[in-house]
Inverse folding.
């Protein structure tokens, strides 16, 4: 098997703690006299990461979690304080906006300089230049100094150069957030083609939509450490659920904040009853969930409905978006939907049904309204749901319950 393209072992980064100028002097003193400075703040700790050729990894996490620091360690812009990182191939990186561009030179000159740094020059560059300029699509600004560019134009120029170079490995930090919608689409399409052609991608993004669309794996950094790594859906869903828990208002705060939300749940009825008292049901009966959602600007929300056990363990979740269903429009800002679970497979126990509005893209959750269900039944089966089953090695007529 070939060596991973990127291999990080016990990677960490720390900086001296500096609050005031006197601290700087003290830190310098410690460094001069003892050769070490122990008074440091660690921003990245013990990161172990492998990225193989052809892989696509989304790097996610809150502001300040250490994502850019990790990218800068991978690209060699920063040196590790602990551990090591190896990159076994050519890479192209779009890190800080405009880094590498000369502000006084035109876009055209900057393309030539950046491309030359990567070995694309002379007749080959002249042949490829129209294609690069067309990708950037910034009109007459291509001959203006880069210092006159908007941040979106700088990213367009940077991406156009990278796209022409087609590196083994592409490392990008939030580029998609800066461009407008049509440029985002163009970049996403380019990245999809690049991946289909065997390219390797590390993408930092706050958009779970883009991460899910482009990456097969994800790594979630939290306060400088890897909180979770693995399949992109598992990691992004855990990350969104973490945010949901973090931003969920306490029940008594809910009323106060609901009105400000883009989407909020107005009410939820179980088997036509809207009540805070749990609904009593027998295993195998039908459970009908009817919910109304208010949409502040009238956009059609997606309804996400989940069932959790009383301790919060998820049992099942589904959304109108996943099933390709369109909620019913009740008024300019109001939508409804009804979901039916026939032959309820829940085993006896206490559960909650949770209803959340999601944005039309089915990515962000907004509000939560919960109703209790108590399922009754006489069975010795254990767990949360009854799975269809049959014993294939035993003869019937025994003592099966
Ligand atoms: N030169 C530096 N000196 C001291 N602390 C730094 C330095 N550079 C970054 N940090 C700190 O390191 C932490 C991680 O920063 P980093 O930019 O990697 O986060 P991030 O996950 O990329 O955040 P964002 O999503 O906001 O871009 C932050 O707390 C930041 O303040």
């Amino acid at each position: 098997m070939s060596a991973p393209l990127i291999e990080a072992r016990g990677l960490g980064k720390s900086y001296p703690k500096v609050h005031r100028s006197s601290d700087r002097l003290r830190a310098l003193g410690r460094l001069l006299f003892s050769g070490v400075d122990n008074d440091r703040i660690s921003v990245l700790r013990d990161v172990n990461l492998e990225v193989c050729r052809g892989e696509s990894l989304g790097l996610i996490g809150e502001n300040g979690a250490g994502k850019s620091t990790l990218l800068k360690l991978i690209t060699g812009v920063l040196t590790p304080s602990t551990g090591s990182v190896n990159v076994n191939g050519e890479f192209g990186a779009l890190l800080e906006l405009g880094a590498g561009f000369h502000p006084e030179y035109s876009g055209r000159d900057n393309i030539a300089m950046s491309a030359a740094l990567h070995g694309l020059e002379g007749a080959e560059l002249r042949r490829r230049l129209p294609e690069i300029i067309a990708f950037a699509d910034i009109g007459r600004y291509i001959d203006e100094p880069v210092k006159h560019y908007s941040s979106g134009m700088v990213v367009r120029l940077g991406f156009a150069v990278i796209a022409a170079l087609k590196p083994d490995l592409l490392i990008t930090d939030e580029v998609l957030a800066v461009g407008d919608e049509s440029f985002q689409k163009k970049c996403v399409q380019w990245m999809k083609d690049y991946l289909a052609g065997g390219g390797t991608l590390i993408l930092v993004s706050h958009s779970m939509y883009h991460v899910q669309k482009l990456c097969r794996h994800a790594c979630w950094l939290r306060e400088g450490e890897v909180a979770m790594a693995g399949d992109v859906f598992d990691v992004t869903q855990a990350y969104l659920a973490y945010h949901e828990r973090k931003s969920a208002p306490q029940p008594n705060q809910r009323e106060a904040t609901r009105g400000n939300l883009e989407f909020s749940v107005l009410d939820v009825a179980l088997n036509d009853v809207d009540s805070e008292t749990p609904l009593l049901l027998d295993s195998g009966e039908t459970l009908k969930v009817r919910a109304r959602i208010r949409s502040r600007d009238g956009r059609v929300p997606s309804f996400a409905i989940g069932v959790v056990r009383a301790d919060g363990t998820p049992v099942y979740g589904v959304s109108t978006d996943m099933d390709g269903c369109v909620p019913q429009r009740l008024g300019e800002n109001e939508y409804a939907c009804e979901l039916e679970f026939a032959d309820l497979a829940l085993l006896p126990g206490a559960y909650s049904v949770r209803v959340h509005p999601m944005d039309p893209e089915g990515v962000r959750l907004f509000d939560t309204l919960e109703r209790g269900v108590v399922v009754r039944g006489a069975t010795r089966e254990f767990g949360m749901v009854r799975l269809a089953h049959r014993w294939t090695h035993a003869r019937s007529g025994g003592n099966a319950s």
